[in-house]
Design a protein that fits this description.
Glycosyltransferase family 4 protein, six-stranded parallel β-sheet, seven-stranded parallel β-sheet, 43% helix, Rossmann fold
């Protein structure tokens, strides 16, 4: 089969889809259409072709979106794939529309609703209308949480096959359970894009308040700067309240250092990969009580849940964690690891894709050979 994968980000493709892509590339011609960021070399190493194209992830410029549709049409018409896999909002909508136009089977993955769908208004109505058109002929629509699926079903957005996956899953070999730190100081870790919707203001508030009360507590941040360097972060760095480590490719050394992950997001998550990786590393977490987070963190079991946009609640839950004894903290982390082993193994995601692709292959008669069986997870490195 000729398989085309359309996504908006190479980092996400590598971090969350590489096991599937690697398995597919063994016996099939796989092409990934993703904006270049200088890291596409890994695709060539697994015998996967690469197509670069421009994309504004957060923009709503009609002219730019029209150009994007034409780009997808050019790519699909030239490649003539047997099936198209799409991830994230614009590839799902515009890639789905173009695939439908050319009558090519396609599978869409709703990795999260995004602010355009989460917030009521004209943009939500337009986006949902486009989603309905794009998903009408989808071979299968994968959702990453039940809340997103229920919204699409209730509003009549989908009438094709659909299934809820355990998010993107987590590679349990790459993220091994780490020894819990025995240091006298306590380390909290924020991981994510540094945008307001990820709860950075609430994290700043908590760090500033609690550092004064508990000098032995340290607050760290790792993540990509989307909207420039936040002035308040610079101020808190100077005061030695927060240590910012920039964007990192390998998070394991930071999970090794930390005692707890703090994820106060109110962004419309599909399923939080930060929380999955943190739990797989045997680290407790404090996060928002919302879809995409509450499925991973159980109140009082492997972490704590907070109200969205509520700095006081975040402060109270972090303080509650600080006051726990060492063994209680460690056991929280171990329970998180057990939960992801049981519910969020990435091999389950790979298996669902293989099943759908085999079904498409059988229906089209495009290949006598079934897709490869699930491979073991990629190496720990």
């Amino acid at each position: 089969m000729r398989i085309l994968i359309i996504a908006n980000d190479l980092v996400g493709l590598y971090s969350f889809r590489r096991e599937l892509i690697t398995a597919l590339a063994v016996d099939h011609e796989v092409t990934c259409a993703v904006p270049e960021d200088g890291s596409s070399g890994w695709l060539k190493k697994i015998n996967c072709k690469f197509i670069d194209y421009p994309l504004s992830k957060r923009g709503v410029n009609p002219l730019e979106d029209a150009k994007l549709i034409l780009n997808y049409a050019k790519i699909i018409k030239g490649l003539k794939p047997d099936v198209v896999l799409t991830y994230t909002i614009k590839p799902n909508i515009y890639g789905g529309m173009v695939s439908r136009f050319f009558k090519i089977p396609y599978i869409s993955n709703i990795t999260g609703l995004g602010s355009a769908v989460e917030n009521a208004g004209w943009l939500q109505k337009v986006t949902l209308t486009m989603y309905k058109a794009a998903l009408k002929k989808a071979s299968c629509v994968f959702f990453q949480n039940e809340s997103n699926k229920e919204m699409f079903v209730k509003r009549g957005i989908i009438n094709s096959r659909y299934e809820t996956l355990p998010g993107s899953g987590v590679n349990l070999e790459h993220y091994e359970p780490l020894k819990y730190p025995e240091s006298s100081s306590l380390h909290f870790l924020f991981v994510g894009r540094l945008i307001k919707e990820k709860g950075i203001d609430q994290y700043f508030d908590a760090a500033e308040f609690l550092k004064k009360k508990y000098p032995f507590v340290n607050f760290h941040m790792v993540g990509h700067l989307i909207e420039g360097f936040p002035p308040r972060l610079k101020e808190l760095q100077i005061k030695n309240v927060i240590q910012y480590h920039g964007e990192q490719k390998d998070m394991r050394k930071f999970y090794m250092l930390s005692h707890c992950t703090v994820h106060p997001t109110y962004y419309p998550e599909g399923m939080s990969n930060v929380l999955l990786e943190s739990a797989a590393s045997a680290r407790p977490a404090i996060t928002t009580d919302r879809a995409g987070c509450r499925e991973i963190v159980e109140e009082g079991v492997n972490g704590f849940l907070i109200k969205g946009k509520d700095s006081n609640d975040l402060i109270n839950k972090i303080e509650k964690f600080i006051q726990m004894d060492y063994e209680g903290k460690r056991q929280m982390g171990l329970k998180g690891r057990k939960k992801v082993e049981k519910e969020f193994n990435r091999e389950k995601v790979t298996a669902s894709y293989m099943r759908e692709l085999n079904s498409i292959s059988a229906e089209s008669g495009s290949s006598e050979k079934t897709l490869p069986a699930i491979k073991k997870s990629v190496s720990k490195g």
